[in-house]
Amino acid sequence: MPKLAANISMMFSELPLLDRIDAAAAAGFRGVECQSPYSVPASEMAARLEARGLEAVLINVPPGEGATDRGFAALPGQEAAFRASLERALD
Length: 91
Hints:
By secondary structure, this protein is of the alpha/beta class.
């Protein structure tokens, strides 16, 4: 695992998400973190990472609908929603 990873959710924000992977590689990073990579298909993200020789070291599960949602893991009755968001993140 790389010692340092570029958080492409916050770094290189002037670029589209996939281009941030290129920028991270050009800056010398060997890994990337992304809080919410769900705006692009997982296959495209994986292909770009592989092409640049980078490792995805962290992603967050989708937080849910609405600006105040922070996830489902600790909300009684939201087990199905949490399971669905986890499965999406694993993809």
